[in-house]
Design a protein that fits this description.
The complex is a heterodimer of chains A (about 425) and B (about 375).
Chain A lengths: L8 E10 L2 E11 L4 E5 L6 H9 L6 E6 L2 E2 L5 H7 E4 L11 H6 L14 H13 L15 H14 L4 E5 L7 H18 L2 E5 L3 H7 L2 E6 L2 E6 L1 H4 L2 H8 L2 E6 L6 E6 L16 E5 L6 H9 L3 E8 L3 H9 L3 E4 L7 H13 L2 E4 L9 H5 L10 E4 L13 H12 L2 E3 L2 H12 L4
Parallel strand pairs in A: 3-8, 3-9, 6-7, 7-8, 13-14, 13-16, 14-15, 16-17, 17-18
Antiparallel strand pairs in A: 1-2, 1-4, 4-5, 9-10, 11-12
Helix pairs in contact in A: 4-5, 5-6, 10-11
Chain B lengths: L9 H8 L3 H19 L9 H12 L16 H40 L11 H15 L3 H29 L4 H24 L5 H8 L8 H20 L1 H7 L3 H6 L4 H23 L5 H13 L3 H26 L7 H23 L7
Helix pairs in contact in B: 2-14, 3-4, 4-9, 4-12, 4-13, 4-14, 5-6, 5-7, 5-12, 6-7, 6-12, 9-12, 9-14, 10-14, 13-14, 14-15
The chains are: A alpha/beta (about 425), B mainly alpha (about 375).
Chain lengths: ~425, ~375
């Protein structure tokens, strides 16, 4: 039975074969009470199989998973269900039973044969439903609730099972961002307050970094990294395991890593082979540049963008279009690194387009970096509205704008005027 | 989407929802009993209600009450005797058999739907009934005398149903994700078994008419002895099944989730299928192949009382019994002079119901609600 030093969960030399494929190779992984362990890795890396092996749903070829010291395979099914609860990825109820009854199903392993649920079981179900905030809605049918509520009900059932170990398989799948945060918040709180050990297979590395105490990374059935998120998640690891290039940043508030992955350039698929169009850099932010970026790419220019904060609409569009960008963390003033990136892009540009973005203290540097360039290359200011309406720098932005115009920058009213102004000089065949 | 499937008798369901759960139970029970009583008056020979009541009283009390069961009417004693026979020896055993067989099919259908997470499962559609029927047809080849037939029939039927059940279970393990695969497997097995049975019957022309008629499903052969045997078997199978309501509640989540909650899913599944086969066999052995009762009954119950199998199992037995009783009345009312097999009536009612369920479900599929 349970030994003081035993971890709650321990995979020991676990090897699992499914058909011809060895899905887990000699895996060693531990997790203890009070801990939320994020299990991550690319599709097919063996995350789900590890959870299923722990539940005894797939047999181990070699090795074992120990739950509180005893190997899964040697525990009777009932006892197993008192030690480990499962929140499956795709569970669908056949019958439209009330949420309360559904959560009460989690008490089965605690009931004597053919006995009805007692006060202790009902109390556990009530506490679990309150914990996920669905007690008021307990009479609704499981097939009538939304996806987010369903996931919470599944969590409540696992909580009502009152097991020391919780296994969650993609608990945030199909959830919007608000519900993702809410669910993981609840799981983490449950772990800490009740001393439970939770292992969650998660695809979203940012969520893993934010909520997990520890991150374990699987790749092709092998454990390739295991430790605190800040130590484990690195650009090298992302390139190696997922084959993506990532800008890894640190959230200035919490110090946690977060990242913005993209495919390496060579994997981005065929691009239209235009006879080397000229390179246009767009300065923007807050979505002001998005239509320009799209239009310029469609017109065949090689487009770059910057300097944009992470999560900015313009950045999302630029990423989607596969454009090189200079980026900065949100709401922070442009740092030296971002400015250097931005200047590099500006240096390579054949023309610069300034989108009608709102200028504040944090992105004023975007305009400062343009000073002096209008004399050398064409600079276009797209100004459907005057700069004064977008100037949140007490005139600094307006002054810079006037200086650019004095240097030779042209003001255009809209996208059509911009295209017309760019075309005569931008078309390489002319 | 709403309930897993289920037809939409929207108006009655909404009306019934006004009553509490107890109220709905009461309506179900009272309605059923009233129907059973009313059914005794229905038959090719018109017998007034008071005569029927008097006959019942006379027989039940062993002649102590209502010594002249045919009442004060100036009837010849021979006529009166024939009425006693009609009511007591023909009608009542048939009604009871209808109720028993219907209950067996209802509880069996509810079990199959839960075990396979399939709203279209039914002992008839999955081929269990055909399996049982093949077992019974074997009797006509073995030429067992009538005396032993009552005892041997259920065993042969059970063997046939069980064999089919094993095949269906294997098919379900292979393709657990598709509702249609399971049904098509059942249909194919059912057809194969019917073909085998026809070969058996044709190779032995004696009694083939009898078999053909029996195959269509009828309550004509009902006797008190057969009722007793059927009742015994159904009570055993249905009684044990009803104890497994909680387990079926978990199994309807899928075998893996059920196991993670502490249920010996594989073992319980097999056990439930065994019992469902037994119940089906009891019905088929004495009434022939009657379809759709097991399909329709659980859906009616779900609409009225919800999807908790602790309720669904016994209530489906009850609704199944009433359903078959009513179908029998309709058969008698439709063609009073020639005996219309009750299986034809249930097919008239059940087949459109099945199609409605099928197309409703099709539309519901994209939300991923169905297994």
């Amino acid at each position: 039975m349970t030994d003081g030093d035993d971890p709650a969960f321990a995979a020991e030399g676990l090897t699992v074969r499914l058909g011809e494929r060895t899905v887990l190779h000699d895996l060693e992984l531990r997790a203890s009470r009070g801990e939320l362990l994020a299990l991550t890795g690319p599709n097919g890396s063996g995350k789900t199989t590890l959870l299923r092996a722990a539940l005894g749903l797939v047999p181990a070829l070699r090795g074992r998973v120990r739950l509180l010291g005893d190997a899964t395979g040697e525990l009777p099914i009932r006892e197993r269900a008192r030690r480990v609860a499962w929140m499956p990825q795709d569970e669908s109820a056949f019958e439209n039973v009330p949420l309360y009854d559904y959560v009460l199903f989690g008490r089965y392993a605690h009931l004597p044969p053919f006995a009805a649920e007692g006060p202790a079981d009902r109390a556990a179900a009530e506490a679990a439903l309150r914990e996920v905030g669905l007690w008021e809605q307990r009479q609704r049918g499981i097939r009538e609730v939304s996806g987010g509520e369903r996931q919470r009900v599944l969590l409540a059932r696992a909580v009502a099972q009152e097991t020391p170990i919780l296994l969650l398989d993609e608990p945030t799948a199909h959830l919007d961002i608000g519900h993702q945060l809410d669910l993981l918040e609840r799981v983490r709180r449950h772990c800490r307050e009740r001393g439970r050990c939770a292992i969650a297979a998660l695809h979203d590395l940012n969520l893993a970094a934010r909520y997990a105490d520890r991150v374990a990374v699987l790749s092709r059935g092998r454990l390739v990294a295991d430790g605190p998120p800040a130590a484990v998640l690195s650009e090298a690891l992302l390139r190696e395991v997922w084959g993506v290039v990532a800008d890894l940043r640190r959230d200035p508030a919490s110090g946690l890593p977060y990242l913005l992955p993209r495919l390496p350039a060579r994997d981005r698929g065929p691009r239209p082979e235009t006879p080397r169009p000229r390179r246009v850099h767009v300065v923007g932010g807050g979505g002001a540049a998005a239509p320009l970026l799209r239009a310029l790419v469609e017109d065949g220019y090689r487009v770059t963008a910057g300097a944009l904060p992470l999560f900015d609409t313009d950045l999302e569009v630029a990423e989607e279009l596969g454009l090189p960008t200079a980026t900065e963390v949100p709401f922070a003033p442009l740092g030296a690194e971002a400015r250097a990136e931005h200047r590099a892009l500006l240096d390579e540009a054949d023309a610069i387009v300034v989108a009608p973005f709102a200028v504040g203290p944090s992105n004023l540097a975007n305009l400062e970096d343009l000073v002096g360039r209008a004399a050398r290359i064409p600079v276009f200011l797209v100004e459907p509205t005057p700069i004064s309406s977008r100037d949140f720098t007490r005139g600094s932005a307006s002054a810079l704008r006037d200086r650019l115009v004095a240097d030779g920058a042209r003001s255009v009213a809209d996208l059509a005027a911009l295209s017309a102004a760019l075309a005569p000089r931008a078309d390489p065949d002319r | 989407m709403g309930a897993p499937a289920g037809p939409s008798p929207a108006v009655p369901a909404r009306l019934l929802r006004r009553f509490g759960r107890r109220g709905r139970w009461a309506i179900l029970l009272l309605g059923g009993t009233a129907l059973l009583a009313a059914s005794a008056f229905v038959g090719p020979v018109a017998i007034p209600p008071e005569t029927v009541a008097a006959v019942l009283l006379h027989e039940v009390s062993g002649g102590a009450l209502a010594p002249q069961p045919c009442g004060p009417l100036p009837l010849a004693s021979a006529v009166c005797q024939s009425r006693i026979e009609i009511v007591w020896d023909v009608r009542l055993p048939a009604l009871l058999l209808a109720a028993i067989a219907g209950a067996a099919l209802g509880v069996s259908g509810a079990t199959l739907q839960g075990v396979f997470r399939n709203p279209l499962a039914d002992p008839y559609l999955l081929g269990l009934s055909s399996g049982a029927a093949l077992g019974v047809a074997a009797l006509f080849i073995l030429k067992v005398g009538v005396a032993e037939a009552n005892i041997v029939l259920p065993f042969l039927a059970f063997a046939g149903a069980l064999g089919t059940g094993a095949i269906v279970l294997a098919a379900a393990r292979r393709a657990s994700r598709s509702v249609e695969t399971l049904l098509l497997t059942g249909v194919a097995i059912s057809n194969l078994l019917s073909a085998v049975m026809l070969v058996l019957v044709l190779s032995n022309p004696i009694g083939s008419l009898q078999v053909t008629f029996w195959l269509l499903g009828g309550l004509g052969g009902a006797t008190w002895a057969r009722d007793g045997i059927a009742l015994g078997g159904v009570l055993v199978a249905g009684g044990i099944l009803s104890l497994y309501g909680r387990e079926l509640n978990l199994l309807q989540l899928g075998p893996e989730v059920a196991q993670s909650l502490g249920l010996q899913a594989a073992r319980v599944r097999t056990r439930l299928l065994f019992l469902a086969s037994l119940a089906t066999a009891m019905a088929v052995a004495f009434t022939g192949v009657i379809g759709f009762v097991g399909l329709v009954s659980p859906h009616i119950v779900r609409r009225l009382l919800g999807g908790d199998y602790r309720v669904v199992l016994p209530a489906s037995a009850f609704v199944g019994g009433v359903f078959l009783l009513v179908a029998n009345d309709l058969a008698l009312l439709a063609l009073p002079t020639s005996e219309l097999p009750v299986g034809i009536v249930t097919a008239f009612a059940g087949a459109p119901f099945f199609l409605a369920l099928l197309y409703r479900r099709r539309r519901a599929v994209p939300d991923g609600g169905m297994p």
